[in-house]
Amino acid sequence: MIRDLHNKLINGEITSEKLTEEYFDKIEKKDPEIQAFLSLNKEFALDKARAVDKKIKNGEKVDLLAGIPCGVKDNICISGLPVTAASKVLENYTAPYDAAVIKQLKRFDMVILGKNNLDEFAMGSSTENSAYQTTKNPHDISRVPGGTSGGGAAAVAAHECVWALGSDTGGSIRQPAALCGVVGLKPTYGMVSRYGLIAMASSFDQIGPLAKSVDDAAIVLSRISGKDRKDSTSMPTADKNYEDMLGGADISGLRIGVPREYFARDGLDKGVEQKIKAAIEKYENLGAKIIDINLPKPDLALATYYVIMPSEVSSNMARFDGIRFGQSVGAESEKTGADYTLWDIYFKSRAKYIGPEVKRRIMLGTYALSAGYYDQYYKKAQKVRSLIKREFEEAFQKVDLILGPTSPTPAFKIGEKSEDPLEMYLSDIYTVTANIVGIPAISIPCGTTSVDGKDLPAGMQLMGKWFDEETLLNAAYVFEKS
Amino acid sequence: MLSKDEVKRIAQLARMEITEKEAEKYSRELSDILGFVEKLNEADTEGIEPIAHITGAKNVLREDKVVEYGEETKKGIIENFPEKKDRFNKVKAVF
Known about the structure:
heterodimer, A: 482 residues, alpha/beta, Amidase signature (AS) enzymes, 11-stranded mixed β-sheet, 40% helix, B: 95 residues, mainly alpha, Histone, subunit A, 39% helix
């Protein structure tokens, strides 16, 4: 889709200003219902669009992303704009600098329409944990869009933006992509700088695109990846144009592993399972070699995730202490006349402004890291993480890619799982593993399944080898095109 | 099972005020989740080293040099202080 729009822009069939206005019109019409955006950036967006139009008019070469309207998840900093992480803690916070990805993308003249809704501090699986609004799934507005990048996924699916930038800690790009019927890519850990992304679990977090097609996702990836001195975990990557490598490679002989453990599960919806099996057949017909493999049970990965992630969360969330930034009871005390001690400011600010799911994870992580329990939980989980990584290394000796469902179910009803945290956590069962071992993974639409008379999208997940986004994207592209 | 008292102790460590009702809720919910993560014990990790960095990066160093940020950024950071006096972050007495 990005290429088509780009061609229209450079051929003069449409201007970026007109295109941007059209998208704002769509947002105005649809977003009161979908609620995918937390804030809009109209003035700046139109300014940027006009600047791109001028460049084109002057015969300057512009990038594929130039003048194309997009959304950005509201946990990514854009200088001068609010960044809330969908939390009350950051209600009045304005980002003082650009995230590394934004700095890079600005060089390509992208047009940012606004900031997309998410679960508070990217913790959740349905976007219901936003402190501001509940985003609806455009395919059935009584259902969730998934999460935590639910705002971006819903906005792309509802045509409120061409593509969106999300973040993925345990499936937060892929699971909403699956539930909304769009493409979502989590790059290899270290591929994209995390500088300026509000940290959730630092050893898992990765920024990536939500898009209408694999080609679009590849275009974005090429422009956000690379080593950044401000993120010491980012790795030097070859300067590749992933979008130019698609469709070139034949996939006959490509070895796709299908883990048995991912299918024989009670929680896997029959409709979704059927779609995944059909996708496997399609790959076989395309010439790929389907290989049965064994991987650690997904439950083990989920248990590992739910120890390490909250531990990192509890440490990252310590910065919201009511002192350096964010909402504070201290600032109010001038009005209320309350005489708070330093201790009170920590305890009361955190109690008042942090939401329930975030608190739950802070508590869980604090417990797992506390004296006497560290070995039993955190250290044990890091050992199991090694073990799981080793099993993936072995699997990747035999196969090039691993295929399975992205989410065990299609979109669920709003409110259906919000009272039961453990039930909600199970939505991440197939996605967390890629974050645990750090590999790239993509979710692509693979048909719909009929639930209560509505056609709901199902997503297929492909996982690839470390830093081998090329094979991953190419296989996804070939599937999408056939 | 995590007792209410243990929950309160954790909240103390996390510097977070919680109500009686919350203590009860967390005692139940955290116990459920901890029950689920017991699955970790099914994995034999004898002789396995805990992972340090997933892509194997180590000792990533950079030059110890101050990099100046623009006035705009500095102003932005100060603007975000909950309480301030001039260019200073105002905090309560520590002692």
